[in-house]
Design brief:
alpha/beta; Aspartate Aminotransferase, domain 1; Aspartate Aminotransferase, domain 2; 2 domains; 4-stranded mixed β-sheet; 16 strands; 39% helix
């Protein structure tokens, strides 16, 4: 039996050490709180014991306000696939800046950027730009409903697709009250926030991830189902990949019932392979949503698919029936310049993926071997350059499995990562082109040492 009071004291000890190490970060955050809600620009920047305040970042490293150096495996929540401040992106931005930061009109960079999407990703013939993943998934649902003339959308338990009302349900933050989220084979929609429009999220069906019962539930709603949206690898749930057979059957079934299959590739897009999850899994959806990597480190979102799937966005042809898509900053010239630089390099150097994915495989293999040999209740999961270690024996195939983990050990692990110089998200990590074999060895070393320390101190 774990002595929770003793463990709480140990975790507070780690928090105090981080506070001693980073007093400027703490002071800046406390100052921010006087003028910003929570002291942060996004909920997901909150961290235990307080957010890191970054002074600069380059390559695979980041430095906080106190000058502490960290190996960066957060990478702007997966965005910086070439590493922080890559030279080619900085050069592209410098070249574009003198011509203006914003036009609100068409410009020549748009074509090259859009053409790279179409050339790199199988099944993509048209792409529409926006400014965030939330916008992209919102437009994907609007397109599916308009094209099928059906009202319902299905998402998966644990999937995070942005903050709009239609999909801000059942992504598992925080752990729901047992029973509130329904049985594993038939989850119910649990609003993730007060203030959601009830009529919006009640048209959202929640499916079990990696579970065959999902297909039965889809069939039950087939006549009213406009589309199914899925993360091929659930990021915020802890880098949990969908099974290839599961994705293939989902593709077959949605095609059979005439519903859109939507891949949310905000994280997997241009990360798992040059063509994202489509190429990695060999499954082609009707449309995909993008952001992060493809924006080159600037605010960005996109919706892409076949010409037929995107036909209701042909505004000059279907003005009376087209869906509403608009945005002051859509296709911003600085963003498209940065994004073009990233996609051009990824297209020209596909060997980068072999190297990054091998480093992800190395982490998973070494951590799982260590956990098995030393009898730790831990399992490393992920796909390609996406990884995470869950403090549970596994298998971890869904957010429900992840929630069975040792929460105290998870909190201790995250504190020890930061204390020992790893900058990493609370629930998923990423490899970039700037990481070296030595960096991955250090990542593995810190994980193993943290596991040993928590066991020795009876936290785990």
């Amino acid at each position: 039996m774990v002595d929770r009071d003793k463990v709480a004291g140990i975790l507070d000890e780690y928090r105090a050490e981080i506070g001693t190490k980073s007093p400027k970060s703490l002071a800046v955050w406390q100052r921010n709180r006087t003028v910003m809600p929570g002291g942060v620009g996004s909920l997901f920047r909150l961290a235990d014991p307080f957010p890191m305040v970054v002074s600069r970042a380059k390559g695979a490293r980041m430095w906080d306000a106190d000058g502490n150096e960290y190996l960066d495996f957060m990478l702007g929540f997966s965005t910086m696939i070439l590493g922080n401040a890559p030279d080619e992106v900085e050069a592209a931005i410098r070249e574009a800046l003198p011509r203006g930061t914003h036009y609100g009109q068409c410009h020549e960079h748009e074509f090259e950027f859009a053409k790279l999407f179409c050339d790199m990703v199988p099944g993509v013939e048209k792409v529409a730009f926006c400014n965030s993943g939330t916008e992209a998934t919102m437009y994907a649902l609007r397109l599916a409903r308009a094209a099928t003339e059906r009202p319902l959308i299905a998402k998966f338990d644990g999937g995070y697709h942005g903050t709009h009302d239609l999909l801000a349900v059942s992504f598992g933050r925080p752990r729901p009250t047992p029973g509130l989220d329904g049985p594993i084979e038939d989850p119910v929609a649990v609003p993730e926030s007060p203030g959601l429009a009830e009529g919006a999220w009640k048209d959202t069906i929640v499916l079990p991830y990696n579970h065959p019962a999902a297909f039965d539930k889809i069939r039950r709603h087939a006549s009213r189902l406009a589309g199914v949206i899925i993360e091929p690898v659930q990021g915020a749930a802890g880098s949990i990949p969908a099974g290839p057979e599961f994705l293939s059957e989902l593709r077959r079934l949605t095609r059979e019932i005439g519903a859109f299959l939507i891949f949310d590739e905000l994280i997997t897009g241009f990360r798992l392979s040059p063509s994202g999850a489509r190429g990695f899994y060999g499954v082609i959806p009707d449309v995909s949503t993008y952001g992060k990597v493809a924006g080159g480190g600037l605010p960005f979102g996109a919706l892409a698919g076949t010409a037929e799937a995107m036909r209701l966005m042909e505004y000059d042809v279907n003005m009376e029936s087209c869906i509403l898509v608009a945005g002051t900053f859509n296709g911003n010239p600085i963003t498209t310049a940065a994004g073009t630089a990233v996609l051009r390099r990824l297209s020209n150097e596909p060997q980068l993926y072999e190297r990054m994915n091998a480093m992800g495989d190395r982490f998973r293999a070494e951590i799982n071997r260590f956990a098995q040999e030393q009898d730790y209740p831990a399992i490393a999961v992920g796909a390609g350059s996406m990884f995470w270690m869950h403090p549970t024996r596994g298998p971890v195939k869904s957010v429900r499995d992840a929630h069975k983990g040792n929460g105290l050990a998870g909190a201790g692990l995250r504190l020890l990562y930061r204390k020992n110089g790893l900058h990493i998200s609370p629930n998923h990590g990423f490899v970039c082109a700037a990481h070296t074999d030595e960096d991955i060895a250090r990542l593995i070393e810190v994980h193993k040492a943290a596991m040993v320390e928590l066991r020795e101190r009876s936290v785990w």
